[in-house]
Amino acid sequence: MAVFDTPEEAFGILRPICVQLTKAQTVENVEQLQAQLRTVSDSALQELQQYILFPLRFALKTPGPKRERLIQSVVECLTFVLSSTCVKEQELLQELFSELSTCLYSPSSQKPAAVSEELKLAVIQGLSTLMHSAYGDIILTFYEPSILPRLGFAVSLLLGLAEQEKSKQIKVAALKCLQVLLLQCDCDDHPRSLDELEQKQLGDLFASFLPGISTALTRVITGDFKQGHSIVVSSLKIFYRTVGFIMADEQLRSISEVQARPSVEDRVAKLMVHREADWVKNTGDKLAILIKKIIECASVHPHWKVRLELIELVEALLWKCSQSLVQSAGPLLMVLVGLLNDESPEVQAQCNKVLRHFADQKVVVGSRAFADILSENLHSLATSLPRLMNSQDDQGKFSTLSLLLGYLKLLGPKVNFVLNSVAHLQRLSKALIQVLELDVADIKIVEERRWNSNHLSASPKTATRPWSQIQRRYFRFFTDERIFLLLQQVCQLLGFYGNLHLLVDHFMDLYHESVVYRKQAAMILNELVAGAAGLEVENLHEKHIKTSPEELREIVTSLLEEYTSQENWYLATCVEAEEMGEELTMKQSGLQAITSGAHTCQVASFPAFSKPSPTICSMNSNIWQICIQLEGIGHFAYALGTDFRLLLMSALYPVLEKAGDQTLLISQAATSAMMDICHACGYDSLQQLINQNSDYLVNGISLNLRHLSLHPHTPKVLEVMLRNSDASLLPLVADVVQDVLATLDQFYDKRATSFVSVLHALLAALAQWFPDTSDLGQLQEQSTGEEGSHLSQRTTALQDRLENITTAEDIEQFLLNYLKEKDVADGNVSEFDEEEEQSDPPKVDENDTGPHVEPPLPLQIQIATDVMERCIHLLSDKSLKIRLKVLDVLDLCVVVLQSHRNQLLPLAHRAWPPLVRRLTNDDPLAVLRAFKVLRTLGGKCGDFLRSRFCKDVLPKLAGSLVSQAPVSARAGPVYSHTLAFKLQLAVLQGLGPLCERLDLGEGDLNKVADACLIYLSAKQPVKLQEAARRVFSHLMKVDPDCTWFLLNELYCPEQLTPPHPALHPVRLRGGPGPQNPYAANVLLLLRELR
Amino acid sequence: MAAPPDPQFVLRGTQSAVHALHFCGGAQGREHQRLLSGSLSGLVHIWSLQTRRAIATLDGHGGQCVIWLQTLPQGPQLLSQGRDLKLCLWDLAEGRNAVVDSVDLESVGFCRGSILARGQQRWMLAVPGRGSDEIQILEMPSKTSVCTLKPEADAKPGMPMCLELRQTDSSPRPRLLAGYEDGSVALWDVSERKVCSRIACHTEPVMGLDFDSQKARGVSGSAEKALAVWSLDEQQALQVRGTHQLTNPGISDVKIRPDRKLLATAGWDHRVRVFHWRTMKPLAVLAFHSAAVHCVAFAADGLLAAGSKDRRISVWSLYPPS
């Protein structure tokens, strides 16, 4: 837009206005000039600079009162000119500087003149522009000693503005201008960097202002947070730039003791400062106070940019003035250390960068002074730590621990200087132990029980830090989760840099010293080891050599041994009676005791009971203890990686044992520890982990079985192992089963429960691993399906016959068939049946055993035989719980052995007497289970069983049913709670399916039917009626015709019309009419039959 | 005796009765220590004592019982004697496991062989010979027969049951201790092919013997209920020093720990018994196995292993040598 390129043209345009302005100094004229100036090119303007400046300067210099508005516009116009031109003469520069400065001069006071804010802003900008417009070296010659008074005036003026003005804009501008004035400007206009001599001269000059600048800026920085972060940021910047320039070690080093005589008048010379050693020391002392104030204020400034700038300050000062500001080094480092864990990621990152930079350059560790300061600080922090942890709130603890963490990071390997001092290590550990104390009053921990045993199906998740989702912990002395994270990091760093042997020994001593310390010590030990592996630690000290894997393994091995030792691993975590589970009732009372305890814990209104009972607290504490140790094992695995495989032989067993623990928390912790192990050792799943290390487990199981009283949980481990392994382990399993059985033989009376459940798991596993090819289950389904269809066919045929108009021949044929069938049934039953029976089993036998030599039995058959042998003994155990479980095991034994009749039959024979007693003379529950066993047995040794059943059991059962029927028919509603009722129910429930399975003959079926018929009466309790109906439903499947007849004998709902007129009408005994007590049930059944 | 100790660990997986045990490679630390086991099914398992797992299985005896295992002092070579009438020499260096040589035996008895190093690469081997009472001495690895030791016609000691080749510092002549079926122990001078001395220690066949050359004292176990301790005097004469009665008959193996502090016996009564070797004071009865113990072995570091018919190998750490 510049129209006038040449000076001549421009002159022509500008001259009239300049003249006019000189004559009449009005705002309008100034503005007119400024408007015209815009049309002149920069080069032309440069030529005419002096000319144009004249009227403006004249306007400023004219004595007498002036209107502010005019001065402002003049200054603005001047600024405009200067912004487009350079000042090439030093004199002009000086004069303009003075003229601009005096615009704000008020002779009456020290403070800046009370003028409008706009004017102040204009002047500040003018000054700033002026300094920028100084051409080349002019600027340097400007800063000669003689300028000192004027410069000083401007500096104090700007500082005053920055400090006292209300307008944020002015403050910022003043600070900016100050920066320019002190040659610390950020912009690119300053052509070159200063050489050493120039720097020194400038430094000498500026040193005079240092006290003023530093104190004023400190006041600004420590001022109200509300003043806005940008002012604080700029002030911080000027502070460190100025201080960093004047106090730079590099400059100070070359300063001689004797002051060179400056070639200026005395008045000025007095202002000059000589930066000799004493001055440096004094100034350093004074600055230290200011720096401390600044740090205190800025490090907690709410705005992150301020904290970021503070880091810059620290970096600049530590970098440039580490010697001159040695007193401040401590506080300065503390800033870095403290901000390492700042909440703002930018600040953290910058802090890390600076620390890394320092570490690289050996600023801290390389210089003894710094290392000493840091150690000193750490010493004093360690000393005060216990007190601080005791008295501070969460925020305070957070910053204190952040500081501790920072020191550790900075000191790196040198942290050992502190750790080697016994007193300090003790202080440090005391503080850590104290602050990590857990709150163990939470009652839920003891209460929560694991009921589901199939928890091991989970596969390890691919989390980088597998133990991040641990159970929330509650600490007595803090609630903030971040504090725990900090503590973790502190411990990890200690483990990483510190002498691991020393630390582990120390904390192990504490672990042993008292139960009070044990949990915390274990937590710390866990983190120490994790830290020592150095997987999570950010190493600032590249040269630092980590603990070697061998050493680490050694330490971990000893810790593991300690953790899993008898006295630290087997702690009481629940009421003992419940744990043993010997008695159902005991168990219940145990639970009640705990829950009632829980109530007293929670009810705070009763002061007497408000405290949790010590036992529950101690159990809680024990639970945590075990969880922490389990977590530790996970950490160890994580730390050692695949090296941990070697430790599996001692670690896996105890962990697995805890995985089967009743307490939810422990079982969870153990599972997550196993996940960690999976990760570390490279197993895909827990199953794989268990499966591939079964040999180690078996070793543990077998050895512990020898001392069952010491290791009552051993059978549980085997149980878990069995659930998670496959048929490939059979030889190992067979081996350990021998031990189990041998131990069981020793402890029949005391610990049968746990063994029986192991046997159950074992047989269930065997049944699953070796499904019989001619599977009983399949057969069963098939046969029932067949029977069903068969039945329906028969009934429909019958119905067809009955419903269609039948001929006499049909009837004759039917009767003939019937007679023939009856004949067969009466005379040739056995032969016919035997043929059928025998055609099946020999095939199976041939498959399994050769004709000549009997090969050794498969292992699973041997095992099942051995187990069944024990079951026979245990069937008569005193405890109902055991009897029930044994019946289940027996059932499974039969399933496994079904293809080996040679083994099964003799055993079944021996098992028979106690089984009969279960059927005829036991708790209803046992009766039911015994029926189930009979059913399974019936599938394979039906023949044998049928006769025995009919001979030994059926008469007794039928008899008891018949004799009890009148009692139950008369009984009131309370009867259903009696044992007699339950027995009746059990027998009725069991009989039906068994009859069907055993394929009983007609006579025996009649016995069953006779005994059950009475229960179809409406007088019987409803449940018994239902059960009886179910018996008949089963009977229908075996012999529908007979059942039909029987039912109709009881109650005949309709008149039967003969199919052919030649036949007599049939009258059945069952009377019709609704008063018949059997009507309802018979009707239901007949409907089903049809 | 206080509470009986437990095995340190148990090795499972041979899948058949264990008849021979031998430790090797303990010098370089536990990591390299191996336990070799020979089983009834003819397999030799190599166990790592660090991981407690079998690291290799050698199958060279056609399913016939392996009764003797011995590594050669020079380098990683293993001798295994099986009841298939073969003695195999295995190369185990660098994870190899191949038969490099084999010797055909002529006796199918239970007698384990014995070796004696004779210089850098040469060694002498004693095995039961062709005749039922003969012992054959071979020069290895050339397999040349040195001599056959046949008892005098009127002696009738029966079959040799166990052998122990040895050489004292005082005399370079190799000597052979042999336990016979009739319960006698004989000392043979191999080079002169004659019996130096012979004593009747037992009334039943000698099942195992071991000799402590420093104390010049030996021990033998037999099918009867006693251990015999005997000594050898300067004149190469054997003398019975005493017998030690046991509760149950039948000892299938005896071993003296390399530091000569302990003696372990493998019993048919499923027990391993440990004695103080000098005083023969019984120290422990190790009850773990559920069938006859067939063999015991000591490692250089004092670890004791016992192999049993119950297919397990138990490893014990007892009175660890300081």
Automatic annotation (TrEMBL), chain A:
Pfam families assigned: TPR_TTI1_2nd, TPR_TTI1_C, TPR_TTI1_N, TTI1
Keyword Cytoplasm (UniProt): yes
Domain TTI1 N-terminal TPR: 11-343
Region (Disordered): 827-855
UniProt KW keywords: Cytoplasm, Phosphoprotein, Ubl conjugation
This protein's name: TELO2-interacting protein 1 homolog
UniProt source species: Pipistrellus kuhlii (Kuhl's pipistrelle)
Primary localisation category: cytoplasm
UniProt cross-references to InterPro entries, sorted A to Z: ARM-like (IPR011989), ARM-type_fold (IPR016024), TELO2-interacting_protein_1 (IPR052587), TPR_TTI1_C (IPR057567), TPR_TTI1_N (IPR057566), Tti1 (IPR016441), TTI1_rpt (IPR049362)
GO cellular component labels: cytoplasm
UniProtKB/TrEMBL annotation, chain B:
Signal peptide: none
Pfam families, per the entry: WD40
Each WD repeat, start to end: 199-240, 286-322
Domain of life: Eukaryota
UniProt keyword terms in alphabetical order: Repeat, WD repeat
Keyword Secreted appears in the UniProt entry: no
Keyword Repeat carried by entry: yes
This protein's name: G protein subunit beta 1 like
Organism, scientific name: Pipistrellus kuhlii (Kuhl's pipistrelle)
